[in-house]
Amino acid sequence: MEARAKILGHPVHQMLIVLPLGLLMGAVIFDVIHLATDDTEWSAVTYRLIPAGILTGLLAAVFGLLDWSRIPAGTRAKRVGTVHGVGNVVVVALFALSWYLREAPEVAPGTLPLLLSFAGGGLALFTGWLGGELVDRLSVGVDDGANVNAPSSLSGRPASEHVGARA
């Protein structure tokens, strides 16, 4: 099932999801480094990463919702996509609450903001895996004619058209 929104032949959602995943998981890593070093410079970085991760997550969600809307009802892909999408909304909410509860960039976060960050990071690992399941096992967001000899997406030719085998 092909993605609904594409840029230069590639699914927009799949291109965008690396941003919130990287930013929010980076926030978790910097929270851990802050705990290990007690250096508030690390928590200051986290304080700035979280809102960027939230905004890019919401942007990726728009395109994910477009793709989800094309998945046929009653399929495993629709169920997995629903859990993936709802789970990612919860991820964004956990990080948003974590960020809201942090006093300021230069102030060490309390226990609750850290726990929310870690919970959001753990859930993001699971929902990211579900996203991989959608693409790799259920072919959601994959060109219908995809194959190992498909022409470049920039060629204007359909993926189902084979390019000569190379040695």
What can you tell me about this protein's structure?
The protein is mainly alpha-helical and 167 residues long. The protein has one domain. The protein contains five helices and two strands. It has helices spanning 12-16, 18-37, 40-68, 76-101, 111-137, and strands at residues 6-7, 10-11. It has a two-stranded antiparallel sheet. The protein is elongated and about 60 Å long. The chain starts with 5 loop residues before the first strand and ends in a 30-residue tail after the last helix.
Attribute tags:
two-stranded antiparallel sheet; 64% helix; 167 residues; 5 helices; elongated; mainly alpha
Task: Give the strand order of the largest sheet, numbering strands 1, 2, ... along the chain.
Answer: 1-2
The separation of the N and C termini measures: 30 Å
The low-pLDDT segments are: none
Question: Approximately what portion of the residues adopt beta-strand conformation?
Answer: under 5%
Main structural class: mainly alpha
Instruction: Quickly count the helices.
Output: 5
In total, the number of strands is 2
Rounded to an integer in angstroms, the radius of gyration calculated over CA atoms is 19 Å
pLDDT averaged residue by residue: 92
Q: Helical residue percent?
A: 55-70%
- Number of discrete domains: 1
Order of helices and strands: EEHHHHH
Largest sheet: 2 strands, antiparallel
Task: Choose one word for the global shape.
Answer: elongated
